[in-house]
Every structure is written in C-alpha cells, then in structure tokens.
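Example record for the data management plan.
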Amino acid sequence: MKRNTTTLAALTLASALALTACGGTGAEDNGAGSESTPATSSAAATSTDTATPSATATGSAEEISAEHNDADVMFAQMMLPHHEQAVQMSEMLLAKDDIPTEVADFAQQVIDAQGPEIERMNAMLAAWDAEPMGDMEGMEGMDHGGMSGMMSEEDLAALEEAQGTEAARLYLEQMTAHHEGAVEMAQDQVDNGQNPQAVALAEQVITAQEAEIAEMEQMLGNL
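Corresponding structural encoding:
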C-alpha cells in the first residue's frame, strides 16, 4: 500500500512538472511571437519612411543640378527640336505601307529612345529657368549639310512623297545625316558644357547615335 502511494505521488509530481514546462514554453513562445510582430512592423515602417524621401530626392527636378552655363542651355534648346524632327521623320515613315520590317523597327527604336530624352531636356531647361525654342526657331537654314543635320522643308516633303523601299532608303539617308549632326552638337556639349547631367546626356547621344549610324549603313546596304 505504501509502495502504491509513493508511485502515485511520483506520477502526480511528474505530471505537474510537465504541465508547468509546457505552460512556460507556450507563454514564452507567445510572448516572443507577439513582440516580434510589432518589431517587424516597426522596421518595415521605418524602411518605408526612409525610402520615400529617397525616392522623392531622385525625382527628375532634383536630379538636375542648377549648375550650368550658356553651352548647357544652348545644347538643350537646339537638341530639343533636333530630336523632335527625328521623331517626326520616324512617324512619317511608319505611316507608310510596304516599309521593310527592319527599317520600320529602327524608326520605332528612334521614337522610343528620343522621346524620353526630349522630356529630359525639357526638365533641364525648366530647372535652369530657360525657355525652349518654339517652332524650331533659330534652326532655319540648318539643312542636312549644316552643323545640326536638320532636314529642310524640301527634305521632309521628299520623304513624305516617297513610298515603299524608296521611302525607306531616303529615310535612312536623311536620318544618317541627322544623327551625324546630333553627334557633332553633343560633342560640343561634352567639350564646353558645365552641367553634369547635360554632359552625361550628350555622351549618351554620342554613343547611341554613332551605333545607330553604323546600323543604318548596314540596312542601306541590304536594300
């Protein structure tokens, strides 16, 4: 009888210890879990709060330094209508039928590349309190034989009238001269500009358009 009582007491004590241990572990786990959630939320909130001003700081208006000289302003003012004409020529070509696929794809590539650069240069002029040239003002007389490579009204009329493969050929010839003018203007900016973003854009124009000149020469050979 005494042996049974001792055994029962031992079993009761073991059960009590087991329940206490389980209860303690559960409480600690719950406590840790309830504390980790606010900590994680707090960290996420802190991360979000930190990222938002950073993203704002990299907005287009703040990316452009106020530091600039006359060469920077002239570059943006002259390259804007230059790019706009390249987009106009490309849209003119894409409106035609029977244009070789590789030339049509290239024209779309010009639009896609120069559209964002137009926005960038407009933002630069706004940051410097300078006005863009209206209606290609100041660009008169700069045909494809001039420094800028701008097409004359006669050049654009010829492209408008051309069709099919002949239109593709004329487009590539005109755009090659157009790109050569852009590279020359961009090199002037690299040599004489002061604003770091404008100089970087000019370098981008040189790299991209020199590669496109080589691409157009190859396409002309394929026509």
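Summary line stored alongside the record: Confidence is low (pLDDT under 50) at residues 1-61, 135-146.
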